[in-house]
Amino acid sequence: MITTTKRALIFSLASALLVLAVSTLPWRGPENEWQAYQRDYFADTGVTGQIAVRQVTPRLGPDGRPTDDAPPELCLTCHLGLEEISASHPVETFGCTICHGGVGLALDADRAHDGLLPNPSDLSVATQTCGQAGCHGDQTDPARDHVAQVTRSLQATYAGGIALIRYTFGAQKDLDPRFGVLGGVDPDPLPQTVPSLTTYHVDPNAPPAEVQFAQNCLTGGCHVTEPPTDVPYRYRSTGCAACHVLYNDEGLYAGTDPTLPRDEPGHPARHRFTTAIPFSQCNHCHNRGNYSLRTMTFTPRPDLPPAGDPIPPTMPEEGRRLLEYYQPIGQFTLCEWELDCVDCHTQTEAMGDGHFWPDQKTMQSVQCRTCHGTLTEPPVTVEITDPDDPALRLARLNGNYELNVGDVVVLTGRGEKLGSVQLRDGQLVQFRKVDGRQYVVPLVTGSDCRQQPDQQESRYCHQCHAYQR
Ligand code: HEC
Ligand code: HEC
Ligand code: HEC
Ligand code: HEC
Ligand code: HEC
Ligand code: HEC
Ligand code: HEC
What we know:
Layout: H1 4-24, H2 33-45, H3 91-94, H4 97-100, H5 109-112, H6 146-151, H7 154-157, H8 159-168, E1 179-180, E2 184-185, E3 196-199, H9 208-218, H10 241-244, H11 279-282, E4 289-292, E5 297-300, H12 317-325, H13 334-338, H14 341-344, H15 347-351, H16 360-363, H17 368-372, E6 381-383, H18 390-398, E7 408-411, E8 417-424, E9 427-431, E10 438-440, H19 458-465
Parallel strand pairs: 1-3
Antiparallel strand pairs: 2-3, 4-5, 6-7, 7-8, 8-9, 9-10
The protein binds heme C (7 copies).
């Protein structure tokens, strides 16, 4: 009997021979599809190279664990010039099929794409791809069980929103969340969180407003499980890629893979993961307009496409940022548009922490005082002492700011460290995550601020500190 390992070995030997045979064949006759793509790539980029089969033999098996017998993959033969997805997922270790599926040894597109997952991070498949045990589905360390975190996050459940609507229209008698766009069970709930949610399917006999809510508000638009509305400023992906793969406002691909159209909206700017997420990415869902509770319809903001005029490409970065960030009716302070969302909002606020939080207000932990303190109390700070502190990992993945054991950083109300806000020579210094730009954080403590220390909602601060657009 042939063991699985032996069979895999024979298979990979045979396939390696096949590749060798194909790649050493003298090139003659009509051009293959892949040869045409390579020709386009060399012509477009000015890179010089041979038109030849490109082979990668990944060092991880389909379960995400190291292996010596993964079969070679030829995807890059056509996708030559495709960006490596990230330094943490090097192409020579991961290959392509570990995330995308497909048939690695095929050289025609139809066969290669058989069983393909165009977006492996979509939450309907993420447990089999990103969420493999060796990757982002680590059952032993809940902090690294990213797929469970995201599927239970408010951005995926919208639990508070659904409860509010059902309460408002008389479908339930209290505001307790019972349903989520994605439901499920949390094996280990906290006192403030909900142990389980039922997946929400609207009952056709529900009050008309609730039916309309499900139709107009839960599909498309801004839910991490739903495809986006295909209009400028709203192009994005679903699942993990909704935040970690950047789209430009026109949704156009700007990389060097010759197979991908550069004039067809709906593609990421590059095949690239990042944790240095600019505000524009979060804003492909947030700050796009308003829902009317009365009519259950969405009105897009009037000052940007698709409803408003395009911004002239010559507009300087600062002005553009101020215009694009919040809706015209929004009130905000300088730091609320100079910084990016991820400079203030933590990883668990954005990605969830594995629990079903009942609503935004309860989940959200960062406050203005987290960085500025109050008239009576300075911001809470803490020294990084553990070399395995997650804050160090975030800094390393980001690369635009440095953080070391011994540094003192700001602590949020829920005990998360803001590693990019550090105490240096008696001052709080903040590094902007997208580009490392430095700011000194002015403190309320010791200033002439006229706040009531027990009032800390941003709405209150905006009474005196609103920025004019
Ligand atoms: C013969 C050339 C060829 C080979 C080989 C090939 N591709 Fe493609 N691929 C294309 C072309 C052309 C497109 C864009 C047109 C399209 O959507 O089919 C594409 C599109 C894709 C897309 C985007 C699909 C979508 O719907 O957005 C993914 C993902 C992809 N390929 C992955 C792979 C993987 C993984 C492999 C190897 C298993 C592979 N490709 C092998 C030619 C190829
Ligand atoms: C770590 C997982 C991972 C690996 C490894 C990976 N990809 Fe992807 N790829 C993704 C994700 C996630 C997306 C979806 C991006 C989106 O929807 O915006 C994607 C998107 C794509 C697209 C579509 C881009 C578009 O314009 O729509 C192509 C083509 C592609 N990958 C090809 C490949 C090829 C070829 C390889 C191997 C060299 C590869 N990928 C390796 C995760 C991966
Ligand atoms: C709503 C936005 C959002 C979504 C969706 C999202 N993330 Fe994140 N992710 C973030 C933010 C914000 C950070 C923190 C970045 C920082 O502060 O440097 C982060 C950090 C990370 C990190 C680095 C820190 C660590 O714990 O290792 C990983 C890995 C990660 N995300 C994986 C995922 C995976 C896998 C998914 C899908 C299951 C996902 N993310 C979905 C926003 C998101
Ligand atoms: C795919 C669309 C989408 C993207 C992209 C997205 N969000 Fe959200 N976000 C939502 C939705 C929907 C809610 C509302 C949840 C609710 O009302 O219950 C939300 C809620 C939030 C909340 C409040 C609730 C909580 O869990 O803390 C914060 C903070 C937040 N988002 C930050 C971010 C940041 C930061 C980014 C970018 C890194 C981002 N979001 C990207 C859709 C998105
Ligand atoms: C200067 C820091 C800062 C920046 C930048 C920032 N926020 Fe916030 N955000 C806060 C604070 C503080 C709160 C708490 C609300 C309060 O105090 O009233 C908040 C609240 C929220 C809420 C919950 C609102 C609610 O109704 O409960 C969401 C959602 C949110 N922010 C998303 C974002 C997104 C998306 C971005 C980027 C486009 C962003 N924030 C940029 C500090 C910031
Ligand atoms: C993550 C840290 C952080 C959080 C949270 C934060 N800020 Fe700031 N804030 C800063 C930084 C950094 C500056 C300095 C900006 C500069 O110098 O350009 C600043 C500056 C300010 C200033 C002085 C500049 C001005 O507008 O004249 C005010 C007022 C202010 N913040 C109010 C707020 C309010 C209100 C909130 C809550 C919505 C808030 N901040 C949340 C980091 C933060
Ligand atoms: C009643 C008006 C008022 C309210 C409400 C108020 N402030 Fe102030 N704040 C001031 C004044 C006046 C100053 C001192 C003048 C100045 O530097 O702008 C000040 C100063 C500050 C500074 C220092 C600015 C610097 O450049 O040194 C910060 C930071 C700040 N306030 C944050 C806040 C936050 C956060 C809130 C909400 C929790 C808040 N303020 C509420 C009036 C107010």
